[in-house]
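Lab notes, practical 5.
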Amino acid sequence: MAANWMRRSLMVAACASAALLAACGSSTTESAISPQRMIAFGDGMSDVGQKGTRYTVNDGSVNNWTLQVASGYGKTLSASSAGGKSYAAGNARIVAKPDAAGSNTTLTVKEQIDSFLASNTFTGDDLVMINGGISDVIANMAAVNAGTMTTEQMITASRQAGTDFAAQIRRLVNAGAKYVVVAGTYDLSKTPWATDIGRTTALNSASSAFNEGLLVGIVDLGANVLYVELASYVNRYTDSPSAYGFENATKAVCTSVDATDGIGIGAGKVNSALCTTSTLLASANQDKYAFADSVYLTPSAQRQFGTYAYDRLRSRW
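Output from the prediction step:
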């Protein structure tokens, strides 16, 4: 069953990605975009400090992929809570509440877009970056562990969340966004968390289902939407870590234990939103690790994905 699901998911994702790429033309000096405003939505992967810290090692560097893309264009990006245009928030789900950590106050991705559109309109030189799916898969896995959802229901719910995500991306385009960069979830079966709880198969299927729902839903938006393969990129980190400068892609480098359920994987777990250079494994070089905590990526991993996304942007528009 799982093998059939994976084959189907991979075929759908490949076809959808190909369709999106078919709308792409080579960028030229004359046609290359020069964004004047950077806007972001999403979850902990894109959160640049909604509550003051980021879901990575908080070392003062450009340690988030959206910041890396912005820096490529000579721009900056700050959290909406600080007056900026990044609405992404840790643990945010696409449309469901509570969030992955059980809070009802975190804005969903839909609500983040609502908030932006309530007082802003898109212009022709805006660049929108959006990610989603990580928190929905985490929340669905928590429901399975609690016995309120079966594994098959988790997979179905994750696919629906991907479909809901696609609807929000379509909303952006319909509201006038010309350039939208989209990342789904990475394969959460590759995380230290998946290994710790022994649920790699279920998390692989749920992650694939989310991305399948997303890709099918945006397959006709290639003129305005660029899908960047976060799942594929993180797979490379874990499959061939040394090629990306990593020596460890199976263990978290942070030691910042959160007494609460800070990232949705249980209380008493490491939460990178609390991590600084003073809360790392003894003698560890953070640049040699792919994961900051059991779910989220280190600054080096974030920057490398951001550079990849920027390069894709430059070749696309």
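Observations recorded by the TA: The first strand starts at residue 37 and ends at 41. The longest helix spans residues 151-174.
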